[in-house]
UniProtKB/TrEMBL annotation:
<keyword id="KW-1003">Cell membrane</keyword>
<dbReference type="InterPro" id="IPR003660">
    <property type="entry name" value="HAMP_dom"/>
</dbReference>
<keyword id="KW-1133">Transmembrane helix</keyword>
<dbReference type="InterPro" id="IPR003661">
    <property type="entry name" value="HisK_dim/P_dom"/>
</dbReference>
<keyword id="KW-0067">ATP-binding</keyword>
<dbReference type="Pfam" id="PF00512">
    <property type="entry name" value="HisKA"/>
</dbReference>
<dbReference type="InterPro" id="IPR003594">
    <property type="entry name" value="HATPase_dom"/>
</dbReference>
<dbReference type="Pfam" id="PF00672">
    <property type="entry name" value="HAMP"/>
</dbReference>
<keyword id="KW-0547">Nucleotide-binding</keyword>
<dbReference type="GO" id="GO:0005886">
    <property type="term" value="C:plasma membrane"/>
</dbReference>
<keyword id="KW-0808">Transferase</keyword>
<dbReference type="InterPro" id="IPR005467">
    <property type="entry name" value="His_kinase_dom"/>
</dbReference>
<dbReference type="InterPro" id="IPR004358">
    <property type="entry name" value="Sig_transdc_His_kin-like_C"/>
</dbReference>
<dbReference type="GO" id="GO:0005524">
    <property type="term" value="F:ATP binding"/>
</dbReference>
<dbReference type="InterPro" id="IPR036890">
    <property type="entry name" value="HATPase_C_sf"/>
</dbReference>
<keyword id="KW-0418">Kinase</keyword>
<protein>
    <recommendedName>
        <fullName>Sensor histidine kinase MtrB</fullName>
        <ecNumber>2.7.13.3</ecNumber>
    </recommendedName>
</protein>
Length: 497
């Protein structure tokens, strides 16, 4: 409606201006022709006059004025002013003659009087407002010069008021205004119809799409008729059916996979327990065996430990996939959790030659968390940092903010190549598949850590550069159920908090 109103206003203004200009041109042309005929008539009468005295000439001027006013023409509503020319140097001075007391030579502008005096052989025309009978109206003023016997040249001005044209333009303006209002409401009605016929079905399609995205896979659009909107609804429903079928198929495959992993993990526990008992007996008696057999017993025990860790991780992953993981929340000071993790990793750090340094504030760093899960996250981060630290120090930074706590584990080893920070939390992903594992990791530690962080509504993020080391930041809300907006510690060395 606003666009329609703007278009009607512009179109109405252009048409109104063109009509006004056309009426003005027509009025000026007619006035010039009429003024020329009346001027010739007056000059003929003056040429036939034999008056010599001033009084007789004044009476003759009045008679001629009356004849001019009574002369037939296309518009009898005209006024005449006769005034002595600026170039007249005759000693005979006639009185100013006007056709009305309300119109005098002051109605004629100095510019027009100058133009008439400058060229006495041509008519001069001007369109200007004139006050007649106390009312300001636009008028056409045509000026020319007549020669008065014995009195010299006199200016003769014909004033043609454009009252009829002004009334016509007022009527047109009112008509344009009424038509514009009606047209604007018609545009609004058309827009309403278009909205009902087109926009509302499209909006309904958007709402159905949102409900589909929210998981309500049975939502469909009503498809009626054979128009384009009906074709859109049919295509949309076909797409929704296809998506629903594929999603259900994927859900079925995922459920089968999750059940398979869970069942296999549980079923392996029974034979694994028996194997563990036998391996413990063999490992305890390894001193009585030959050196090769004793070493084999040690390797068997180590690989069994690694297998048990893998089995435990698979069970944990299956709990996350099944949505069965739950938090056991309690107030925890992360400084003590970090100390326990660092103490447990110290033997590995000493073997690798990577001292672990802790940078913690003096104030408590408390948050409502599951202590077991947070300790598991930090243990994975610290062990990975020691493994990839290339014998350089590992720094653990602890920070606290108004709404969040954070721990950053930083190593100064090989770092991460571009794009690897987005893959480090992928299950079984390794930055260097050829790199040997010194601690027998399962490849699921960071994946489980990420799930643990998400379970707390927290963040677990990675940053690294080749040769500059890597940083892993764990950020948790201080109060359970709250969302995070920022972290007390930066992720990268040059990042602001």
């Amino acid at each position: 409606m606003l666009l329609g109103l703007l278009a009607v206003t512009v179109l109405g203004s252009v048409l109104h201006g063109q009509i006004a200009a056309g009426l003005e041109r027509s009025r000026v042309t007619n006035s010039e022709y009429e003024a020329l005929a009346l001027t010739d008539q007056a000059q003929t009468k003056w040429d036939g006059s034999t008056s010599a005295s001033v009084d007789v000439l004044n009476q003759a001027a009045r008679d001629i004025m009356e004849n001019i006013l009574s002369a037939p023409g296309p518009d009898p509503s005209r006024y005449v002013v006769m005034n002595r020319s600026a170039t007249n140097d005759s000693d005979v001075v006639l009185a100013q003659v006007t056709s009305s007391r309300d119109v005098d030579v002051t109605a004629v502008s100095d510019e027009l009087r100058t133009a008439v005096s400058a060229d006495t052989t041509l008519q001069q025309t001007q369109v200007t407002p004139v006050r007649i009978d106390g009312t300001q109206v636009p008028a056409v003023i045509v000026g020319s010069v007549v020669q008065v016997p014995n009195a010299g040249p006199y200016d003769l001005y014909f004033i043609f008021p454009m009252e009829q044209e002004a009334a016509t333009m007022d009527l047109l303006g009112q008509a344009f205004l009424i038509a514009g209002v009606i047209l604007t409401f018609l545009v609004g009605a058309v827009a309403w119809v278009v909205t009902r016929q087109v926009v509302i079905p499209v909006r309904r399609a958007g709402e159905v799409a949102q409900r589909l995205a929210a998981g309500r896979l049975n939502e469909r659009m009503p498809a009626k008729g054979e128009d384009d909107l009906a074709l859109l609804a049919t295509s949309f429903n076909n797409m929704a059916d296809s998506l629903q079928s594929q999603i259900r198929q994927l859900e079925g495959l995922s459920a089968v996979q999750q059940r398979f992993v869970s069942d296999v993990s549980h079923e392996l526990r029974t034979p694994l327990t028996t194997i563990r008992m036998a391996v413990d007996v063999i490992h305890g008696a390894r001193e009585d065996f030959e050196p090769a057999v004793g070493r084999s017993a040690e390797l068997l025990a180590g690989e069994l430990d690694r297998f048990e860790e893998l089995l435990a991780d698979l069970l944990e992953i299956s709990r996350f996939d099944a949505g069965a993981a739950a938090l056991d929340l309690e107030p925890v000071d992360l400084r003590s959790t970090v100390e326990r993790v660092v103490a447990a990793a110290r033997p590995l750090a000493e073997r690798r030659g990577s001292p672990v340094r802790v940078h913690a504030p003096e104030l408590p760093v408390e948050a409502q968390v599951d202590a077991r899960r947070v300790e598991r996250i930090l243990r994975n981060l610290v062990v990975n940092a020691v493994e990839h630290g290339e014998g350089r120090p590992v720094d653990v930074h602890v920070g606290v903010g108004p709404d969040a706590v954070a721990v950053v584990v930083e190593d100064h080893g090989v770092g991460l190549r571009p794009g690897e920070a987005a893959h480090v939390f992928t299950r079984f992903w390794r930055a260097d598949p050829a790199r040997a594992r010194t601690t027998g990791g399962t490849g699921l530690g960071l994946s489980i850590s990420l799930e643990d962080a998400r379970l707390h509504n927290g963040w677990l993020q990675a940053w690294g550069e080749p040769g500059a080391g890597s940083r892993f930041r764990l950020t948790l809300p201080r109060r359970a159920g709250h969302s995070l907006h920022s972290s007390p510690l930066p992720l990268s060395p040059g990042e602001e908090q």
